[in-house]
Predict the structure.
Amino acid sequence: MRRKLSFLLLYGILVLFGGLGALLLIWGEREEHASLTENRMLAGFPRLTWAAVKDGSFMSGMEDFLSDNVPERDRLVDAADSVMDLFSLVKKTEDDLDDELAAQLSAFALEGGEFEDLPEEELFPPEDSPAPQETHEALAVPENTPAPTDAPAPEATPGTENETPAPTSEPVAEPTAAAQKDLSAIKDCTFNLTLKNGTRQLVYTFPKANIQRTIKVLNAYRAKLPADGRVFFAQPPFSGIGFKLGNGTAIGWDGDLEDTVNAYADEGVSMVSVQQVLEQPLLSKEYIYFNTDHHWTPRAACYVANACLKQLGIDPRPYESYAYHTYKDFYGSAATTPKARAGRKPDTLDVMITATPVQGYQVYWNRTEREAPLIYENNHTYMAFLGGTKGPWRRFETGVDSGRNCLVIGDSFSLVFVPYLSPYYETIIVTDVRDTYYEHVNAKWTISQYMAENGVDDVYIVLSTASGVNTTGMFSSLLRYL
Amino acid sequence: MKKRRKTEHLPRLGMILTTVLVLGGLYAFHWWTDSRAAIYEQRAREAVERGDWAEAASLGEKAQAAGAEDTVNQLTYQNALALFEAGEYEAARDLFAGLGAYEDAPTRILACTYKLAEQAEAAGDLDAALQGYLAAVGYEDALSRADGCRYAMAEQTLASGDDRAAFQQFLDLGDYRDARQRARTIAVALTEEPNEELALLLAQGYTADDWEKRAQLSHMHQSLASHRLAAGRSHAAFLTEAGTVLAAGDNSKGQCDVQTWTNVIAVDAGYAHTLALTADGRVLAAGDNSCGQCDVADWTNVARIYCGAWDSYGLTADGAVLHTGYTAHTTLSGWTGVKALGAGNGALFGLRQNGTLLSDPGVNGKDWQGLIAVAAAGHAPVGLREDGTLLYDGHDLSAWTDVVAIDSSPSLLVGLRVDGTLLVQPLIPSDGSLLSALAAETDVVGLSAAGTYVLLLHGDGSLTAPGAPFDLAPLALAPES
C-alpha cells in the first residue's frame, strides 16, 4: 500500500510538472522577446538539433526558456527582489563601515519596519539655511570589496518610484542662487488634446506642488554645473496619447507646464515642450510612436534631442543624416504574445550607426567597469539602445573631441534619446534613479560626485509622463541622490 | 507465495506510456512548427517563380512569422532584381530602398538611379539626367556623366543666344574639358575687355580692384603653412623645414612616435593618430589603429592627406580618394577629379577641380560654385570661395570676409583672414577664454583646429596653441626666416 501511494505521488508530480511544462511549451512565447520589467531579453524556444542535444545547448536553452516563460513571472520577480532587498540590507549592514546608520537600519528591518519619505522640511530646507559643504573627492572603495561576478548588477524595476527609499545621513543641498523666484505664484497646469470636433479633452493635470517640486529639483541640478551649463527636462507622453494625433482622433495638443517651468526655474534650466516639437510631425503622420510598443521612435527622440541642442547654439544633425540598421520585425510591449500580434504588422526599428566608435561601460557600485556598448547592433528590439537600463551607471566615451560632457537621467524613454547626443559630447554618463543601488546603504556615491568626476557640463532629464512631474518618488529620488 | 495480479504492472506501463506520448507529442509539435516555416518558404519561392509577387509576399511573411530568417527580404530582393532586369527602374528602386542594408541593396539603388538618369538623358531631359547622375555618384562614371550633362546644357544655352547665362554655366564647370576657355571667350565678347582673366572677373560683376584683391587672397592661400600643423585631441605634430616631424602631448597610443620620419611634406592628425605624407607619395602613420585608421602602408601616388577623428584619407595625384578607418563611406569609389577634402566625424566633403562639392554621406548637387577649400563643420560642409567669403547652411557667417583658410573641429570653426587674424564660430558651447585668446592672435600663417585648442604657426616661425591641454615645448624651434 505504501509503495502504491509513493508511486502515485511520484506519478502525480511527474504528470503535474510534465503538464506544466507542456503548457509552457505550447503557450509560451517561442521567440526571444524583451521584458520591460526586467529590461532584458527573455529566452525563446531553443532549436532542436542533434548537435544542440550533443553539446548540451538544447537542454540549457530549454531551462532558460522554461524559466523565462513562467506565468506571472513579473510578480514573482518583484516579490523576490523585495525579499532580497530586505535580507541584503540586514547582511550589508553587518559589513558596512557606516556603523551608526547600519545599526539603525538593521534594527529597523528586523522589527519589520517600513521606510518612509523624509519629512518635507528635510527634503527642502528653509530658504535661509546654508548649503552643506560639498566635497568632490572620489569615494574610496571599501576594503574587502568583492569584484562583481559575471551576473549583471540588479536591474531597475519600474513601479519602484513610489517605494520609500533608504534615508541618507546627508542633508539635501538647496541651491543658493542670489535671486530665487517666488514659486508660490505657480498655478496648476494641464495637458490637453484638441479633439476632431473642436472640444478640448483634459489628459493630465499637474498640481502646483508637483511643479514647485520639479523646479526645485531642476534648479538643484543646475547649481552643480559650470556657468555655461544647462539642464534640459523633457517629458514625452506614452504612445497611447500620441496615436490620437496620428489617427485623426485629435487635431492638436497643448499644455502650459513647460512655459510655467521655464518662467520660474533658474537661468540655464529649460523644459523642452515635447508636444510642440512632435505635434506637427504626428499630424503629418511621421513615424513618431511605435504601433506595438509604448515608447517613442528614434525619430521622435532625435527631434526632441535636437530641440535641446539648438538651445545650446548647436546646429544639430537631422535624423536622416545618420546611418541606420533597419529592422522590420520589431514587436514591442503591446504585442508580446502571439495573440496580441495576430493581425498586427511589426514595427520598423531604426538602430543608429554612430559616427564615431563609442566605447561604453557599465559602472558598478564599487567603481569596477564592464564593457557595455551604446548600441546593440544586432538586437531587433527596443533593447538595442543601451541594452536596457543596466545600473547603477553607464559611461560612454564617444571619441568626439568636443570638450563637453553630459549626464542623462531618465526612464526607458531616455534609452533611445542618448545616442543622439553622441556627436556632441565627449563623455556621456547615464543613470536611472530607480536602480536598486540607490536604496542600498552602500550607495554613498552620489550623482553630483560622479558628475564632478566626469566634468559634466549639461544635464538631460528625460522622463515619460508615467515617471515625470506627477511622480512623487521620482523627483524625491532625483534630489535625494544628488 | 502471493500471486501477482496481471494488472499490477499496468500503472507503471501507463506512466511510461504517458511519458513517451508526452515527449513524443512535444517533439512532433516542435517539428511541425519548424517545418511550417520551411513549408511556407518553399511555397513562397514557388510563387516567385511563377511571378505571383503578392502571394509570395504573403507567404514570405508567414514563413518569417513561423521562424524562417530573412524570407521577406530575400523575396523582396528577388522581386526588385526582376524589375531591374525588366527595365522598371523606379519600381525596382522603391523595393531596394525598403531593404536597407540587405545584401547590396544600397548599390542597387544607385544603379537604378543611374539607369533612370540615362533614360532621361536619352530623352533629352538634361536637367533630370543631371540630378539623377548626381544622386548616383559612387556608381560607375556617374560623376563624369553629370559633368557631361552640364556641358551639354551650357552649349544649349549658348546656342539659344543667352550668352550671359551660358558664360555662368561654362564658368561653373571649372576645369572640365575646355569649359574655362569657353567662359573666357564669352567673357571677352560680353565685356569687350581683351585681357581674358580680367574679362572673367568683369563678367561676374567684379571690378578691376577686386582682381587685385583676388590675387592677394590667392597668393596668401597658396602660401599658407597649414599643411605643417596637425592638432589631435591631446597631441600635436609639427613639420619642420627639414622634412622631419616633431610631436608633443599624449603618447598613450604612440601617436607621438614620429621621430624617425623624414622627407615629409605634410602632416595631419586625428583623435589619437598622426599621418605624414612623404615627398615620394607614400603615407606614414602612428598612433591608435583600433579602426584601421593607420593602415596606409600600401598607399602610393598620394598628393594630399587628411584626417578625420577616426579616419585617414589620401588624395591621389589624379583626383581619386583613398580611405581607411571607422566610417563606412559608400560613394568614394565614384569620386573623380577631387582636389581637396574636408573630413568631419562620419562625414566627408570633396572639392572637385571644377569647384563643385561632393558629400558622403549626403546629397550631391549642392549649388555651390567657385570653391577653393572645404571644411566639415560637424555634419555640414563649409566652403571657402575665391573672393574670401564662405558658404555654410548653418550659422550666419556673412561677416566673414577676406578669409584665406578655414579649419574645423567638432566644437569650432576657425577662419584665417588675409591680415593674419582669426575669426571663430563655436559649433558647440566653448570656453569663452579660448575664444578671446584666439581673437587676440595676430600674424598667423597656418592653423589646425582641435576640439579644445587651435595650433597656430606665426610669421616669425613661432608656434602657439591657445587652450592646449599639454606642453608645446617639444615643438619649440628657433624662429625661422
Summary: The radius of gyration of chain A is 24 Å. Chain A touches chain B at residues 7-8, 11, 14-15, 18, 22, 25-26, 30-31, 45, 47-48, 228, 312-315, 317, 321, 323-326, 328-329, 353-357, 399-404, 423-424, 426, 457 (CB under 8 Å). Residues 238 and 318 of chain A are 23 Å apart (CA to CA). Confidence is low (pLDDT under 50) at residues 88-178 of chain A.
